[in-house]
Amino acid sequence: MARSIKCPHCGQVMKVSEQAAGKRVDCPACKKAFLAPKALATPPTPTGGPPPATTPNRVWYVHVDGRNDGPHTADTVVEQVKTGRLDAHTLGWREGMKDWQPLGEMPEFQGAFSAPPPVSKPHPHKPRAQGAEQEPHAHYRPGRTRRDMAIGFWVAGGLGLAILVAILIVANRREELPPPRRPVVLQQPLPPEPSAPTTSTTPGVKVIHGPRPLEPTKAPVKAELSNAKLMANLVADLDKGFRDAIAGHTKAMAKPIFALITKCRSHAEKLAARDWGPYKSEMETLIRRLNEAASGLDTTLKERAVAWGLGDGLDEKKRAEILELNQYDWLTRWQKILADEVEKVRKKGMEF
Predict the structure, then answer these.
(1) Is residue 101 part of a domain?
(2) How far is Cα 45 from Cα 51, in angstroms, rounded to an integer?
(3) For a Cys-Cys bond, which of 35, 76, 107, 266 suits 72, CB 3.0-4.6 Å?
(4) Which ranges constitute the DSSP H helices of 120-190?
(5) Within a domain: residue 252?
């Protein structure tokens, strides 16, 4: 015997056999599986003493929250439908029915699930009941809207015409204005030339009237360095220059060596412009050695710089070995030559 059950997922009511009780079934609507509940027991018939007068009407039972609820009258069931406690899929039963059925399929309750008739709007000319809320325009007349629209159009048209006339008047006035005049530049008067200074006529007193003559400004004279100071600067620059040049050679950097060459030539020019007195012979040799060192360093650097540009991408150790970066004896040789010449000047008696 088939009986009606409701899907717990979507609420769809379907028919299953008695043998499916407690077994897994699939909902045809949502395709989800659930366990079919066991057959509900038939609600017992009320027993006891004589029932009250309303007992014959309390014949309806509903299955809510897994239990049988009742008996109820048909009006009570309808009220619960309106409050939302029951819906069209809720199972109901009364005495004389073979099985539980959804309330929406029973003729007694189909009217409770139908949509209520729409509320009709009151006619504009029909008077409202006494005490009802009055609308702002209780005395509505259809002709008033057209008249108001016509008045609005006339007002808008008049404003637009007035604005157009004002624009045309302003445009005509601008055309009648004379062209702007060119500004007159007034030439500023030149200041009077200073009068020649006059002297006082009082004997023995000389007073000069008029502007004070300007005195020529003298440029500040830069103190000239002594010969000993020039030699001290030479020694300091050579020590630092050779030290930086050797460090740059180990990294294949030509810039520190070029700086050393520039210092040698600059010091040679400064020393050649001085009068060295008793140290003339030693200083001439030192100047010549400075120029020779600058030329020799320049020639050797150009030869090595070409090879330095070919070693990019190699390992640092292998690159240093191939390019002979640690072999900078050509720098130390010139360093020793210049140091010997400086020492000769110091032995001659110059202190620096």
Answers:
(1) yes
(2) 11
(3) 76
(4) 142-176
(5) yes
**How far apart are the C-alpha atoms of 240 and 235, rounded to whole Å?**
9
Supply the DSSP symbol for 271. Answer: H
Where a domain ends, among 114, 139, 154? 114
- Same structural domain, 252 and 324: yes
Dihedral-angle region of residue 237 (phi above 0 means left; psi in -120 to 50 means alpha; beta otherwise): alpha
- What beta strand segments (E) does the chain contain? 2-6, 13-17, 24-26, 33-35, 60-64, 67-72, 91-94, 101-102, 198-199, 208-209
Kindly state the tokens that stand for 172: 């005509």
The encoded tokens of residue 139 equal: 């005395």
CA-wise closest residue to 99 among 18, 201, 195: 18
Residues 250, 309 contacting (CB under 8 angstroms): no
User: pTM score > 0.70 for this model?
Assistant: no
- Looking at the chain, the number of H-run helices and the number of E-run strands are 8, 10
**DSSP track, 293-308:** HHHHHHHHHHHHHHHH
Q: Are residues 295 and 328 in the same domain?
A: yes
Q: Look at residues 114, 141, 160 and tell me which one is the last residue of a structural domain.
A: 114
Please report how many Cα atoms fall inside a 13 Å half-sphere around the Cα of residue 240, on the Cβ side.
7
Q: What is the span of the domain harbouring residue 13?
A: 1-39
Check if the beta carbon of residue 286 is closer than 8 Å to that of residue 278. no
E strand or H helix at 291: helix 280-308
Q: Give the side-chain half-sphere CA count within 13 A for 96.
A: 2
